[in-house]
Each structure stands twice: as C-alpha cells, then as structure tokens.
Amino acid sequence: MNQSIKVGIIMGSTSDLPIMQDAADILTQLGVDYEITVVSAHRTPDRLFDYAKTAAGRGLKVVIAGAGGAAHLPGMVASLTHLPVIGVPVKSSNSIDGWDSVLSILQMPNGIPVATVALNAAKNAGLLAAQILSTADEQLTQALIDYKNDLAKKVIDSASDMKAKGHPSKYE
C-alpha cells in the first residue's frame, strides 16, 4: 500500500478516461500522487462499496469521481465515505448534452455533499483536490501559487502580443 497516494480518481468506464486524464495530468504537474481506476456504480456495486469504504484507510484524502448519464458514482461514493468527493459530470454518448450528468451530481440531498465542477472539467477537479490537500502542505500551496501566477502571466503575454500585432486597446 502506497501511503503517499492522497487522491483517488475513479470513473464509471474507460470511455471517461480521455476526460478524467486531465485530473491525473494536473495532479502530476503539481506533484500529487494519485491512483486511477474504473468503478461503476451500476455494473460493479460491490466494487464501488469496497472502494469507497476502504479509501480513507488506504490513505486517500480526496476522491474525484467522473460519471456520465445518470452519474450516480460521485454521490454513491460520498454516501459511503467521510472524505471529500469531487464530482466530474461527463458528457457521455448516451447523455442529454451532459445536463443529466451535471444535475445528477449537483443535486445531492442535504447531508451528502459532492463538490461539482463544470461538465468535462476534470482538470478543475484535480486543482480543487490539490487545493484541499494544500491546507496541510506548504510545498503544494506554493506549487498552486506558482501555477496561478503562470496562468496570469500567459494572459498578460497574450495581451502584449495582441498589442504588438496592432490591435488597439484603451486599457493599456
């Protein structure tokens, strides 16, 4: 058992992996160890129960759960663990433009919270997980500050590039 793994990333099927990979990638960039696997709320309920009930004991601090369609995975995990759960609604092939997934994850009953990011926004889920962990990790806090400063620099550089290409602005 690797106790350095703090974030679990799960999804209902491998068809969600292209979206959920963004969470893994940002966690890697920030130096956060994670595990990633498939856990289906509907096709493998015993696996879901076992995963959620053993997550804290395995050292996880946050679970990111991506799901499309009915999107029960994040809420079911949240009902079975005290850990924070971040839901990623995934626009799947059987989805109603992703709204079914968004609403299924967003509309949790009082007492079973699930933090919900935008449709297909697994990168934001990874960032939110890192922010949660950073409350007890100064090195991770600095990595997040550096990441956000880099985002700001890219915007300033883009504005400068536009100005250099002759696009006028009264702002600067």
Give me a quick take on this structure.
With 172 residues, the protein is an alpha/beta fold. It has 6 helices and 5 strands.
Radius of gyration from CA coordinates = 18 Å
Strand order of the largest sheet: 2-1-3-4-5
Please, what is the average pLDDT?
94
The helix/strand series, from N terminus to C terminus, equals: EHEHEHEHEHH
Q: Which stretches are low in confidence, meaning pLDDT under 50 for 5 or more residues running?
A: none
Architecture overview:
A five-stranded parallel sheet has the order 2-1-3-4-5, with helices on both faces. With 172 residues, it is α/β, with parallel strands linked by helices. The longest helix is centred in the C-terminal third of the chain and has 27 residues, at 138-164. The protein is globular, with a radius of gyration of 18 Å. Strand 4 (85-90), helix 4 and strand 5 form a beta-alpha-beta unit. Helix content is 47%, strand content 15%. Helix 2 crosses helix 3 (73-80) and helix 5 (122-134) crosses helix 6. The chain starts with 6 loop residues before the first strand and ends in an 8-residue tail after the last helix.
Characteristic key phrases:
172 residues; alpha/beta; 5-stranded parallel β-sheet; 6 helices; 5 strands
Layout: helices, strands, pairs:
Layout: E1 7-11, H1 17-30, E2 34-38, H2 45-54, E3 62-68, H3 73-80, E4 85-90, H4 99-106, E5 115-116, H5 122-134, H6 138-164
Helix pairs in contact: 1-5, 2-3, 5-6
